[in-house]
Amino acid sequence: MPEIDRNFIYQERIIIKFSTTENNKYIWKLYSTINNRSELIKKSNNIIELLSWAFINQIIDTGTQISSNGPAHIISALDMINIIAFISDNTETKLFDVTDLNAYSSTAFPVKSLIFVNQNTTGQDHEESSISQLNIFNTGEFHVTQYKNYDDFVACIHGWHYSSKVEREHMMPEIQVMAIKPGESQEIKSSLKNLISITGSKIRYSSHKDTRIIFKKNHEYYVSHARHGDISTYAFQNKTELYKYLEKPLEDFTNTVFINVFEQSPMLEYLLNQNNKDVIQLFYLIEGKRIQTFVFDETGALFTYKQSYFKRQSYINNWMLFIRNTLKHLASSKPVEINQLLKIDTFTYEHVGLTGNMLPNNEECYALDLSVEEVDKHIEITFKHQDKLFKSNDKGSDIYSDIYLFISKSLSLTEKAPVYIADIKIDKSVMMKKTQRQPCLFDYLNYKRNVEYRLNQKMNRLS
Fold this sequence. Notes:
Elements: E1 13-20, E2 26-32, E3 39-44, H1 47-56, E4 65-68, H2 77-89, E5 110-118, E6 130-137, E7 142-147, H3 150-167, E8 174-179, H4 184-204, E9 211-217, E10 220-227, E11 230-236, H5 239-247, E12 255-258, H6 266-274, E13 280-287, E14 290-296, E15 302-308, H7 312-329, E16 336-345, E17 348-353, E18 366-375, E19 378-385, E20 388-391, H8 392-395, H9 399-410, E21 419-426, H10 428-435, H11 441-462
Parallel strand pairs: 1-4, 5-8, 9-12, 13-16, 18-21
Antiparallel strand pairs: 1-2, 2-3, 5-6, 6-7, 9-10, 10-11, 13-14, 14-15, 16-17, 18-19, 19-20
């Protein structure tokens, strides 16, 4: 953190000189003008850091005149005067003159935060299109951080809420936001205020220690994940990439929330708001001849699966049977809920909770049990229907052809029915060798999805 320096005297007039380095990085230099001489006081690559340092060290104040050769479309002299006024209006001298020694007995934390939004819309320069954050700590020290990307900034906001929740109860720094330029900067200022407020309500009052925040901007998805006191950030170019990330098994239950301060993602936001750590939840959405399945596992990870839609009864019964069987393998007694997801309009979703029991089913479908075990250092896969077995070591690549021939002789369907995997039994040693961790519901769901896809693709080609 920059140290407060009282060696400089107050300046009635200063000069801010602007230049660039060989690699086009900006440099801002602050000069005094005492006795008609120009003397360099300090330089920085961040104008907010430079002005904050000068103000906090009482070198300048709101009455100081500023001359600058900096490009006006980036930050003008008038902008600099407004920045100093904003700092002055939102700080007090006592923040920097800390005499209580208890403030130094533990890790420093911010008590005041000023955020400066400078969005360059000219298309000429992007170095100063950024968000700068002035944090003033309980020790009287200060620090300025510049954020180029929104995922970095959200991680910072997330970190404050998270650390204050687990370390300092509900203590939070006071936050103020300034838009340096009109236009888009003002819009971002408004969005950031909403972001701070919403993250506070979603994280600080959540009963879950680990939390993920998701938001969407410019069609990209950003994630900030607080876990074990650390904050990680991720950016994804589309929803497919995001869903792959959300599927990854977690160590502990993690609350995941979507915040629509920039752009909406209604279905994802709705689903995440329904997640309950005490229940295994399945949601399905019928879209024409396709059905999309979402399953929240025991850790809050979100499994997704899109398949052909056949009959509602057989679909529900298969999933209820499969999840129950899997929970038995995992020695879990959590209840199971299956819900139909309904799209009301472009931005509104609802769900209908069905039942925890199997539905009456007169529709024909075909369900297989799958077992995976290691035999003589080779993995053997066995499909079973009643007393009929299909072993991978017996049939090799023709196993799917034999299953199809058997199914076509066994069932007289008026419509082509999908094949479902109703149960998967996997040697724990085989599973752990692949995942390097304890098995969880997602591992079984992933097997089901991959095997069903291969089975149904093969059978469609053979039919």
